[in-house]
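Ticket closed. Logging final result for Peptide/nickel transport system permease protein.
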Amino acid sequence: MSTYQFLIRRGLQGLLVIWGVITVVFLLRFMTPGSPVDFVAPLDASPELRAQIARNLGLDQPIYVQYAQYLGSLLQGDMGFSYIRGRPASGIIFLRLPATIELAVAATVVAIIFSIPLGVISATRRHEPADYAATGFSLVGISTPNFWLGIMLILLVSVGLGILPTSRRPIGLVPAMEMLIFQFETVGIQTWIRHMILPAITLGTYFTAMIVRLTRSGMLDQLGQPYVKAARAKGLPETLVTYKHALRNTMIPIITVLGLQLGTLIGGAVITEFVFNWPGLGTLIIDAINVRDWPIIQGALIVIGVGFVVINIVVDALYARLNPRVSLE
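Final structure:
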């Protein structure tokens, strides 16, 4: 099977998964208490006015009719109209999405920079102080809740030391005048980095700790393989054996996890965004839940689900491309 055939097959499977996500998200509105009418209608609204609002929202139709209309609207790129915000839901969601992607990518970069070197050092210096320090860090990182870490960083670094800002950055991929703006001047980049450091560390700490453990276990497995012993017997430098041969083979599962975790970071940035008042999908979803703004909630969850599917397809294709022993079948 060629790469194109593989991608076509995975794409069809991904469409089925996306259809399942859409269905589940649609049904959530009927499974949760409360009605959008309660937040749209005035407090003293008469039953007739409430019924009229329900008709305007399409809530008076049978569920299968609403489901068919919703699918038809999504196929046309229409995620519904937010009566709470008075704007189409798709426009609001896609203006917030870049900020979430920006934070997820920054957290991934932080994880890669710190986790892989720590994992290699931990594996090559097994049962030494460096190994114990790396494994201890990974244990603490995995056990630390993101919201607690974010609050502690704000109190210590921002409030206590006054080094870094505490909340959303004034520049970057942010909604402003219906456009995405980023200032590439030196001052702009410095401002962006200062605002990005604490949220990226908060979101990427768990990710970093997990990759450290994965790199360590993978390196220990590869360093015991016959090809490593043969390379050492030939007199190759230890640095070359470690980084060119052992680490290269270890990177294949790490890349897979990196891709899959990127999707997790996009969907799991809700708490971090809330702590740092980040203008992304996380804060948008929380605000929408508080007022039962279902077009926003459904649209945001569908976008996150589609992101997971796309990233999974890309990672699977990349994994098979990097490892010739893995068949696309």
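The radius of gyration is 24 Å. No further action required.
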